[in-house]
Amino acid sequence: MKPLESLTEEYRSLIDSSNDAIVLLDRLGRFKIVNKKVLNSTGYKESELIGKHFEKIVPAEYLSKCFELFKQQLKSSKPTIATIEIRTKNGKLIPIELKGSVAKNKGKIIGVNVIAKDLTELKEAEEELKISEERFRNLTENAPIGIYYNDFDGTFLYGNRMVEEMFGYKSEEIIGKNFLKLQLVDSDDFANIVKLFTLKIAGKATRPKEFLLKRKDGTKRTIEISNKIIDIHGKKAVLGIVQDITDRKKTEKELKKAHEDLKVSYENLKELDSKKNEFISIAAHELKTPLTAIHSFSQILQDKKICVDTEKMQKYMKIIEEETKRLENLVTKILDLSEIDAGIMKIKLENLNLYKFVDELALEVEPLVKKSKLKLEYYTDRNFPEILIDKEKLRQIFLNLIVNAIKYTPKGKITIKANKENERIHFQIKDTGIGIAKKHQKLIFKRFYQVESPYTRKITGSGLGLSICEELVELMGGKIWVESKLKRGSVFHFTLPMKSKM
Ligand code: ADP
Could you tell me if 143 and 120 are in contact, meaning their C-beta atoms sit under 8 angstroms apart? Predict the structure, then answer.
């Protein structure tokens, strides 16, 4: 069979100018006419196709389908459409969409006309679109930020993995549901969300807003939402970018708190520093008084003339001795306080028989009591259980309070009591002395505070004893206070936690 035998030159150029492949198959399915596009696409020469069956270019998997269509087409005037692949001369497969129609000559069926469109580019474009859609979906799905969109009624259309994680719902549980009906936010925020939506839909610029999110499991998180209007397949929707800012808020809060704490610490430190300065200047002043006396009297004693007057000499020596004692006492107290302030004073617990302890203490202060013509009474249960306590500190507190009671009691008696009260021991040191006016009762525990009166003026003191007592009692977990009536006497109370023998 000769190619193009039956085609005029005009027809030939017409079919060759087509961008689609055009073929005429004879009644047996052999190529009778093929246009240039066919040759270009398949790589065959015209002579290699003409007279050959379409099997030559149709791969095996499409053959039965093509035979069927071919047979049908010969019998029907209705065109057939099919999408298949053809194989080129070098084995490459090309996707095509073919349209067949019955070919007639002078009313007689002579075969089948086939027009085929090369789908390679279309398929490639589709493939690319699929890949880019896939890439976009992957990106959105795995974005480290919540992405969702909903229609203008607030119905969820999409939510990525982060949204699922944040909301605690699977995306199928929220898609198709209304944002507000899911009760993802508290009623307070409800109105704000609606407002944000409305503003956005109206095309107004909105800033990211904070909401309290109610997750599916009931837990609450703080989220921040920014909205944007987007176009999905020609329909407008609201895109939401959502971030869980709970931890950020917590850190911000902690940072703020740390900043405030730092400010308070700084203020405390400043106050402490000024208190320390005040303490040093008062301490220096207090130390100077006995030192000046010691200095002046030792100078007088150096005067040769004084050596003859033994009575005077002894009087001055006594003053020097008393002032030295006072100085020593003051230095000891200042050292105690600075140890407490530095936080290095440690509690050393040991077993103690309270009855024996008070008994020994009474013996120790007896000479002082006698010298002051006072009476000392003490009441402690002989069967008081052995306790764990810092004995040295307890002794220091007691001595301070008893010595004070002696100092400020011109006549009468001093009573010591120790009782067990629940898990505490209640100590009392009572005197029948000058008493303390109400207005001074809190102040006497302050450092260097001394009540001014004609009586106290004659007494040497440092004004530090009670503040040391208070610090020590508190260090041991207890409390100290005073009950007093002017000219009637005072009771100093303190309690300490009772730790029994282990
Ligand atoms: P001081 O060394 O001056 O006694 P304290 O701190 O021990 O220092 O006491 C502070 C002040 O409290 C004393 O100066 C005194 O005015 C008053 N005070 C302390 N104990 C008694 C007491 N038992 N009776 C009356 N006043 C007291």
Answer: no
